[in-house]
Amino acid sequence: MLKFAFRRFLGMIPMLLLISIVIFTLARLMPGDSFSGEIDPTNTNPEYIAEMREKLGYNDPLPQQYFRWITNFIQGDFGKSTRFKISVSEVIKERLPNTLLLGFTSILITYVLAFLMGMYAGRKPYTLGDNLIGTFNYLGLSIPSFVAGVFAIYFFSYKLGWFPSNGSIGIGMKEGTIEYWLSRFHHVILPAFVLAFLNIASYTQFLRNDIIENSRKDFVRTARAKGTPESKIYNVHILRNSIIPLVTFLGFDLVSIISGAIITETIFTYPGLGQLFLQSVGTRDYPVLMTLTMLFSLITLIGNLVADILYGVVDPRIRLD
Predict the structure, then answer these.
(1) Which residues span the membrane (predicted)?
(2) Domain hosting residue 223, numbered range
(3) Whether the predicted pLDDT of 41 surpasses 60
(4) Chain Cα centroid distance, residue 299
(5) Which of 95, 5, 105 is nearest to 321 (CA)?
(6) How high is the pLDDT of residue 132?
(7) Any domain includes 130
(8) 81-120: b (≥16 Cβ within 10 Å) or e
(9) Which of 57, 254, 276, 311 minimizes the number of CB atoms within 10 Å of its CB?
């Protein structure tokens, strides 16, 4: 297992190097550059613009610019945000806790509800409860996240008044108090559920179908013939085999912890990394945009590694040599 993880980790290095080249190239192909976001070309002396571009190295050959950027990136220098006028690391540090809270809450809601509903529907297929869960699943699979977000705000925020429609904290809350954390969780519940809505539906349906399929296999018939209690058959034999595919999804879900959901955070005006990414595209804040893209790529690779390792842990038949 350790050898496999180490080999995969080493394999991530050339992949990240290739991704960095693609990100740098795309950033250079986009209109303008980092300096464009700091000035107004219509009201600035062209000679000053040319002098600053030369001073900042924007006229250097592209390989030299890339090497300088990637060297600074590895050393933790992500540059300065052209929009916020502070270092990129400070901008990300300010938004990161909100995205972590949103992501972890969304994953917790996803797996708790999917596990409970999938187990019930799989053990009691074609009943009224199974049909109701199936209706929920089809709605979750068919409704886009931005539509679900708008309806959630309309019903639960404006009509019922149960949850806030925007922001991540109430006004006037003192940091560190119980009221502060209760307000944060109150603000995150609704966007987290909208973010988890599609995954809940797909994971529930997947687990339900897999439980039904595994319940018809020979090893289950053998266990029943030996007089094994039905609860043990479902909880040990069937469930353990059925959750293996869901474990692989956990690695990919880890990406949402950092990246969040761009659409969901934008709809709820939730100040996280997803909203910051979208804003950086619109304002041409290339230092923030490039850093977030590299960060999301790194987390994606780590998520894939975690999924492979968990796959081997859950299923003892799989050996990662």
Answers:
(1) 100-120, 132-156, 188-207, 243-268, 288-314
(2) 91-242
(3) no
(4) 9
(5) 5
(6) 92
(7) yes
(8) bbbeeebbeebbeebeebbebbbebbbebbbebbbebbbb
(9) 57
In angstroms, the CA 50 to CA 72 distance is: 24
Task: Give dist(CA 50, CA 61) in Å, integer.
Answer: 16
**Residue 195, class by beta-carbon neighbours within 10 Å (0-12 exposed, 13-18 middle, 19+ buried)?**
buried
A 10 A CB-CB count for 59 gives 10
Q: Count up the domains in the chain and report the number.
A: 1
Per-residue tokens: 274: 């997803």
Nearest partner of 156 among 274, 272, 268, 273, judged by Cα: 268
Instruction: Please enumerate in sequence order all residues whose Cβ is within 8 A of that of 104, keeping only pairs 6 or more positions apart, or say none.
Output: 257
Letter for the amino acid at 139?
A: L
Q: Which two tokens stand for residue 89?
A: 């690391």
* DSSP 8-state secondary structure symbol assigned to residue 234: I
Output the CA–CA distances (angstroms, integers) from residue 308 to 63, 120, 164, 249, 263, in the order listed: 35, 28, 38, 10, 29
pTM of the model: 0.79
* Contact of 77 with 70, CB cutoff 8 Å: no
Instruction: For residue 279, count other CB atoms closer than 10 A to its CB.
Output: 16
3-state secondary structure of 80: strand
Q: Is residue 194 part of a domain?
A: yes
DSSP state of 45: -
Pair 122, 207: CB distance under 8 Å: yes
Question: pLDDT tens digit string along 167-195?
Answer: 888 777 777 788 888 888 888 899 988 88
> Is position 199 within any domain?
yes
Three-state SS for 229?
coil
Looking at the predicted structure, is the pLDDT value of residue 161 above 80?
Answer: yes
Measured at the CA of 317, the angle between CA 315 and CA 321, to 5 degrees, comes to 100
